[in-house]
Structures are given as C-alpha cells and as structure tokens.
Design goal:
By secondary structure, the chain is α+β, with helices and mostly antiparallel strands. It has 6 domains: 3-63, Orthogonal Bundle (Arc Repressor Mutant, subunit A); 66-131, Nucleic acid-binding proteins (OB fold (Dihydrolipoamide Acetyltransferase, E2P)); 136-202, OB fold (Dihydrolipoamide Acetyltransferase, E2P); 224-471 and 540-608, no CATH class; 477-529, no CATH class; 621-703, OB fold (Dihydrolipoamide Acetyltransferase, E2P) (Beta Barrel), CATH 2.40.50. It has 17 helices and 34 strands. The mean pLDDT is 94.
Length: 705
Amino acid sequence: MGIKGNIIKFMEEKLYKPMLKEELAVKFGLEGKEMNAFYNVLKEMEKEGIIIKLRNERYGLIDKMNLIAGKLEGNEKGFGFLIPDDKTREDIFIPAEEMNGGLHGDRVIVRIISRGEIGKKEEGEVIRILERANETIVGTYESSKNFGFVIPDDPRIAYDIFIPKAHVNGAKTNQKVLVEITTWPEKRRNPEGKITEILGFVGEKGIDILSIMKQFKLPEEFPQKVKEEAERVEQTVSKEEIEERVDLRELNTFTIDGADAKDLDDAVSIEKLDSGNYRLGVHIADVSHYVKERSPLDREAYKRGNSVYLIDRVVPMLPKELSNGICSLNPDVDRLTLSVFMEIDKNGTVIDHEIVEGVISSKARLVYDDVSDLLENEDEKAAEKLKAVSEDLRMMDELCHILYEKRERRGSIDFDFPEAKIILDDNGIPIEIDKEDRRIANRMIEEFMLVCNETIAERMYWQELPFLYRIHEEPSMERINDFNKFIHNFGYQIKGTQEIHPKELQLLTKEVKGKKEETLINTLLLRSLKKAKYSSEEDIHFGLASKYYCHFTAPIRRYPDLQIHRIIKSYINGKLNLSEQDRLETLLPKVAEHTSMTERTAEEAEREVEDLKIAQYMSERIGNVYEGMISSLTNFGMFVQLDNTVEGLVHFSNMIDDYYNFDEENYYIIGEHTKKIYRLGDMVKIEVLKADLIKRTVDFILLPQ
C-alpha cells in the first residue's frame, strides 16, 4: 500500500479527529525533506477530492464528512447537478443559490443539505471548487457604453461574463470571441474576463463551427515541431523495409469507404479454402512504424486522442502527410500494414488466425454505395465498375451474413438509429438533410472489423500481457428495473431482475423493430446501459455480448489502436520483456482514462455541430409544413421527428386549443377539456415555428389534422 493508501487507512480509523498537516507528519514519523514530499501528497489528495482541508487547516476524509466530490453539470436556469466520482451514487441536485460560483464542468466538493425524499434527488451545496474547467469561454460579445459582456455559447454556463473597457481588445457587438476568466463568479456577482481572441462575426462563413472547436478546446493546427517531423516522413516504402516484411502485394486487397474519406486505414481480402472455410484478411495501416513512441508526433496524437469529424472539416489526430499520405491505404501504391488473417468456418467461428507485419498494394478504392448497389440490387453500372472484384465481394457478403448471425445467436445488441446526413454548400450553409442509410457494404466492413478486434483481444488476453481493452460493463440492475417499468406502458417486459443477459435486451430491440415506439425505446435502453470505454483491465463488452474486445482497426484516427499496435508488434517480435511489461502496466491505465475522455469530448463536439447545422437548416424553413411522428413526451411538451431525422419540440404553451398535461402512468398527453390524447408514434402535421441557433433547438406548432 502506498503513502496515499496509508493516509486513507489512518483517517478511516474510528477515533480519528481532523489533524493539522504537521500533526499528521509527526504521526507518520517524518522529518526534514520527507515532510515536504508528504505535504505535496496531501495537496494532491485534496485536488483529487479524497481529503479536504477544513477552515481550521485540519485534514479529514471527504467520505466521512457527509461530503461528495464530483463534476458539476450546469443548467441554463442557473441550477446544476453533481455527477459524483463514486459511480454507485445518484446525481445530486444543486439549487441555483447553492452553486456558490461553481460553473459547468468544474470539479467540486458538495455538502448534502437535504436527503432525497421518495422520487426526489438529494440536494447539496457547493462548498469547495477543486478545479476550474473553463479558464476560457467562447461566446458572443455585446457592447455597452463603458463596458461589455459576453454571452457564453454553452447554455450550461448560466452567467454572462462582464468585460471591463480596458479588456475589450477591439471586439465589436455580435462578434464571436474567446474570453479568459480573470475573476470567478461569487454569490450574485458575474464572472469578469478579458477578450483574448476575436473569431469573427456571427454568420460569417465557418465561424459557427470554429466557435464549437474553441468551446471544446479542439486544436486548429499542429505545433511547428510536429509539422516538421511529419514533413520529414518518407512518402514511399523503401526496398529494405519490404524485405523485412511478409510481401502481400500480389494479394487481392482493396478498401471500402465513404466517397469522401481520405484516411483509409483498413483494407480487406478474402479467399475460400478447400475445406469450405473462409480466409479473411484484415489489413490495417502500420501507423506505429511512422509514429515513434514519445516523439513530437506521438505526444500530439496522444493529446488529441482521436480525430474529430465536424461535417465540413476534420480535426485529425495525425498530420495529413501521414493520415492522407503514407499511412493511408491508397490504391496501387505499396503500404505497410499489420495484417490479421482469420480462418472462419461456416458457423462464424475463427478456428485459426495469424498476425503479420505485411506490405500490400491495394487493388482498388471502393465506395460503400457502389458495393451496396451491386450486392443489394445487382445494379448494372455498379457491376461494370466492380467487375474485377465482384467474386470477392459476393464471398464477403456470404461471410458477413454468417458473422452477423453468429453475433445475433450470442445476444449482441444492434441499435439501428436513424442518423442524419447533412450536406453543406461552399459557404457552409446546410442545403440538405437526409437519413443516412446503413447498407450491406457498411455492415460488411463493420462485421469484419468486429471479428478482427475480438480475435486480437482474445489472443492478447490468453498471453496474459498488459493490453488496452474496449469494455462495456454490465448495466446496473436499478437502471434496468426503471427501464422495465417504463416499457411496461407499451406492453413489453424484460425477464431477469437479478442479472441481465444482453440476449434479453436484443430480443426487445427485435420486438420493437418497425414499431412506432422503436426509436424512443432504443434511446432509453441505450441510456440505461453504461458507456463503453477503454480499460487496461479485461472485462466484457456487454452490448456486443463479447468476452474480449479491443480497438485495433483504426490507428490513423484513434490513439488506443496505435497504442495496441505497438504492444502487438513488440509481442510478435519477442520484445515484450518483463521491464517493458512493467512500464506498460503503469502507462496503460493513464492511456485508457485519457482516451476515454477525448472520445467523449469528440462525441459532444460532433453532436453540437450537427444540432447547430440542423437548427440553421430549419431557420430557413420557418412556416414550412411537414408531417412527422411524435417521438417522445415530456412534462413540458412533445417532440416530433420528421422523416429526415430532424426533431423539434411542440411546447405545451404553443398548444392553444386546450390545457395539456403529460400523464406519466398511461404515457400520453391529454387535453383537460377536450380530452384529446396524443400518443407516442402518432403521425401529426406541424409547422416550423422557430429555430434557435444559440441553443441549437427547433420549435414546431401542431396543425389541425
């Protein structure tokens, strides 16, 4: 047990009373230089939210003092919720007057001020801010006579930021700016700040997405050192390098991607063996050959954690010389790969596999739509285009179905959410929003990557080596039971109240398929599950009903994949000695935590950009009439989803023919006088009322049917 463990153990003792740091040092028998190191550990533990220094300078354990550490989630109305570090605890409601200067995203300590009554959350007050999340804030500047203020883009930051005249730095009303906080908020006092960067006027081309990038602290450019290193990378594969590798250039490999993809990190190949089994090759760009550990390229890739895709631009993990150049498996050029060959029988079982460092020359760059047109509709144009590979594609189609059926048999849950495909014009204005199709070619590549990721994870697990897994823990039964109560309204039920198997949930998703309530039930089911994340400890992937899983197939755009490529290459070359294993044991938990966090940031930023562009698209269609389906109900209104995936709110205050209430028990909305009922899945006619580009929301009103 380390020093932190000893401190915790000592403070957990029944008779422990909060002590001064000097008293603690004496108790631990420390003197001289040792004391300073000890005081630093106390500071660290304070920052981590394990202990707290009270007003009288004495230290005690947070857990023993009715205090809770966690992250603050703000709300535009001024109140917030504490998301506790201790994941077994429910969120705690923080009234606006108890936020005490805490802002959305801050790490704080909260004292419980009222225990939750039945059906109500516990309430708390912020008593200490451990770490500020928003040193800088993005917002819109408004000028006043002797000062200005910035309205934050993120509505969860409920304060406007006061800007003294001396710190306006040339900003004009209606410009998007970056403001650095100089004075944090206190009770009834707004934060103050100074403007450090002017992004441009609201409505100028690209400023909206740039503002979101700044809000999520996504980098615009690579540091100079990283650019220089990328420029030095050879853009061709040398003869010497080829001689060191398994030569797969004669093999019929090809890539299948979206039409506009530039970073092609996976190619596939297939053959039928005499036994009737398939030999599937998954060939992944060997990024680790070019990105050496601890180099400027590597440090920056780690910092970014992943590429972020924002409709009209990518914030790449690696510079284009690598991501679109030497690492991208472009056609008719030699490229280095880490290739996995799997022998798969007619039941979808991988009966043998091998991992090799290879070199390929992709025979074609195929596009999802062409491949799907051939396999789904025998399209003549597509058949002509794909003549050279059509036999391979048909074999892949067969194997895809075998693998999918195997996954289905074991209980893998397949969420088929309608995704928006947003088309922008040259000025960044959305001109079309449609439903993204998940067709056979997309599903085929998905199946091949899944089976490859599983094969690698299982192999490394049985080698008992340090590794980075992709895990999805079992859901809490409390959440599943709440979900079960909810779906009871629709006549569904999940069996098993002590323990849940993915198969039960899979059956439910099948049962609701094509029904009115499908999207709502799938959305709520997804929210009842935990979030998948990276981990240095092996655990199940609940959603895939898989015992072993990892991310191996996208090292150009995900750091965990690059990290495990290094481990695999060390392993197959016999270089994973004990000291290297020890180093990895220390390193991997940090990589897992950091990349899980960058992944969440990327998802949030991508969602914000999508919501913004949808609001922008609908703002040009105010007054338009559409038909839509009631997709969810709340106690303030109902959401209606249009065929193109756009969702808008019909607020009760805009339903003027009656007073409407949400009847939670029967799960419908009912008019007080007319007794008119609106249910989930009802088709309604709506008119677009307004679109708010700041809050990124859309409002509808109902029209008579």
